[in-house]
Amino acid sequence: MQRERERNRGRDRELEIGSRAHYEDPAYYDHAYGGQVDDVAYYTELAVAYPCVLEYGIGNGRIALPIARMGTKVFGIDLSKAMLGDLRARLEHESREVRDRVTVRRGDMRGVRLGRRFPLVLCTFNTALHLYARRDVERWLACVRQHLVPSGELVVDIGMPVLEDLTRDPTKPHRCPQFVHPTAGRVKYYEYFDYDRVRQIAFVSMCFEPAGQKKQGAEGAPKGSLFMTPLSHRQFFPQEWEALLYYNGFEVEKVLGDFQGGPLTATSDVMIWHARVRRGWSKR
Predict the structure, then answer these.
(1) Which of 94, 108, 190, 278 is most buried, by CB atoms within 10 Å?
(2) Long-range contacts of 220-224 (CB under 8 A, 24+ apart)
(3) Distance between CA atoms of residues 260 and 42, nearest Å
(4) DSSP code of residue 131
(5) Between β-strands 102-106 and 227-234, what pairing exists: parallel, antiparallel or unpaired?
(6) Do residues 173 and 198 make contact, with C-beta atoms less than 8 angstroms apart?
(7) What's the pLDDT tens digit per position in 201-252?
């Protein structure tokens, strides 16, 4: 029992670090995801019909800046000081009109209240996967309800759980191609996956090592001057997420399986949920 408690405390520390570390290096984040355009196009087309939107997980503005350039005001919430700092630096290179359309607040998505309502609230690119427990989801959705106008829409995209990743041997590395890291140069890259089946949390260790190292570990993983970035993502299955929305006052209008408008299928990588607060709903 004592050993289990110690393991859980260790996992809680790992969870806390894994919720933040991936966002402490905006240069690498931009390198990894800057070329992702499908979600940008989807949300920009959606938001252009509204005068203002709220985005949870605004980060360094990968989605928010294109929306603002189209004329819509974006209010953003994010916990990462580094990512918001990078967003502010990017805004310096935008026109005055675009700068004036972007407002950010640093804080926890489960508690920040802006004191205004929006016709559209976005929670983009797996931001909701950092809501690790039911109570976290409930607190966040309570904030969403307070930020939506009566007929407003919530749109959330989260990754579909991939069973092949969740069942990987946590002691064996999953190797990926070498690439040029924006600050570390050419690196070898590999990942470890460790899935907590009780809490439904995937712990991913993203390992980087300067290319050219010769030593190998017992399991074939490189040794030497490597560095590692942890990432913790809650895994929500489709019926589970629909139930969480329903019991917190939301009615799902549609769910998509890609950013081209295709249906959710067994092979979808992403789930895009469109929901509104149910008419007459009140928390008892």
Answers:
(1) 190
(2) 220/172, 220/173, 221/173, 221/190, 222/188, 222/190
(3) 8
(4) -
(5) unpaired
(6) no
(7) 999 999 999 986 554 443 444 444 789 999 999 999 999 999 999 999 999 9
